[in-house]
Amino acid sequence: MGVRGSDSFERAHRGNGVDQTLDERRLAAAEASGGTSGSEIKDLVLRLIRQERLAGSVLDFGAGRGELIGKLLDLGTFPNVSGADILERPVGLPESVHWYHQDLNGEIAADERFDVVICSEVIEHLENPRAAFRLLYSLLKPGGTLILTMPNQECIRSYAALLFGGHFVQFLGVNYPAHITALLRTDLTRICTETGFTPCGFAYTNVGGIPKLPRVKWQQVSFGLLRGRLFSDNLGLVARKPG
């Protein structure tokens, strides 16, 4: 999720001061993210759902404005859809959708387990990725599937930002303090193993900005030929809880 709105951005940065509690800082950072992500990221989630032929019950962990939930409902393969976020339940969300209004850095008081848990553009906002993965694991039924997306630190644009700016591109400037935890594929592979998941697989949005000109995409200048890890701003992960 990118930072959206100057008011949210200012509140999040004021949260670095001692006048705000930890809960207030976390909420301000969540509001700064805008509770949304790009269409290419949602498309990646839907592509992985279709590729893995997923169905049943699904939890959108970090559902924000509920935009992805709307797309999950439209698929027609998930009769049971739930969302969880530190933000309030979005206005207009169908009554059938259960909403867990909780800080995602802590436990989720869910009285059910899910066939699928989606954690899209969330892990970079959380303070302890291993604790988050253990929670995600606990929320899945045996044999359930985790789909996760996050900023891709291993693209050319991010490498360039690290070299010349001192950090990965989606953790510089206005992206902080919404984005606080940067992970590489090696980290994700290790964490999946440590927390009990099967070996994970990776996919990419195949949409990525050129360094210093992020509105111009590699795919535009290459007629779609430049794709994959080096030319995607975001990646996807698929892992399973053993059955």
Description of the structure:
This protein is of the alpha/beta class and 243 residues long. The chain has one domain (6-240): Rossmann fold (3-Layer(aba) Sandwich). It contains 8 helices and 9 strands. The chain has helices at residues 6-14, 22-33, 39-52, 67-75, 129-139, 156-165, 185-194, 218-221; strands at residues 57-61, 80-85, 98-101, 114-120, 140-151, 201-204, 209-210, 213-217, 234-240. The strands form 2 sheets. The protein has a 7-stranded mixed sheet, sandwiched between helices. Helix 1 runs antiparallel to helix 2 (22-33). The longest helix is centred in the first third of the chain and has 14 residues, at 39-52. It is globular, with a radius of gyration of 17 Å. It starts with 5 loop residues before the first helix and ends with a strand.
Short key terms for the protein model shown above:
243 residues; alpha/beta; Rossmann fold; 7-stranded mixed β-sheet; two-stranded antiparallel ribbon; 8 helices; 33% helix; 21% strand; globular; disordered N terminus
